Amino acid sequence: xLNARTFAQAEQLGLDVMTICGTCQGVMGAANQRLKQExxxxxxxxxxxxxxxxxxxxxxxxxxxxWIIVRDIGLHELRRHIRVPFKDFRVAPFYGCYILRxxxxxxxxDPENPSSLEKVIQAVGGESVAYAxxxxxxxxPIILEKEQIAxxxxxxxxxxxxxxxxxFMVTPCPLCHMSLDIYQxxxxxxxxxxxxxxxxxxxxxxxLAMGIPTKELGLSRHLIPVDxxxxxxxxxxxxxxxxx
Length: 244
Hints:
Blueprint: H1 2-12, E1 17-19, H2 22-37, H3 39-49, E2 62-64, H4 65-73, H5 75-80, E3 90-93, H6 103-106, H7 116-123, E4 127-128, H8 147-163, E5 168-171, H9 174-181, H10 184-191, E6 199-201, H11 202-209, H12 227-235
Parallel strand pairs: 1-2, 3-4, 3-5, 5-6
Helix pairs in contact: 4-7, 8-10
């Protein structure tokens, strides 16, 4: 019902719904799919929405920022706005689960061999690192129940990316970011490796490349410092104004 309310509000405005979160994409996408396929459910939900003057007709799409950049805005347009390219950076893409699966629900690209995040990395001037863990789970969905298993999963993915030569990772999901950044020290201990791998959320990657000041991108809030990225970016003219 909560998702249907959001969809109905967007529908009234003639808009689709954008999310910057892979997990939100999965949850909202699944809810939208059910509402469109189950008329009885939609009718029942609309009765709950009626007191607010809302009704959902099933015309809204849920779109992740990544897909909007690649499909709606276009990579050529993105390149036009790049001010500080990630020249000579090797970047490991990390999709996580919900932005790709279930494919019958998401349906934007091949869940086994996606390419949209790699295309964005290349568009901002970086080199994409190929590694098997890019489409695996970050461990966050089970982190409260099975922390050791969760951090081991995250650690294995980061270790593989680092062994592939990655300077940092980028993910389109803030919960993946949380798992890979906040729990990185525990993940390293779980797999017996020192990781020290900066993690960027997709909007931060694009923001840095567009020359947005780091203070506006929240980089100082990361537990794993991003100094190694910023020092190299500053040499290329990035507006680095805050201490990390």
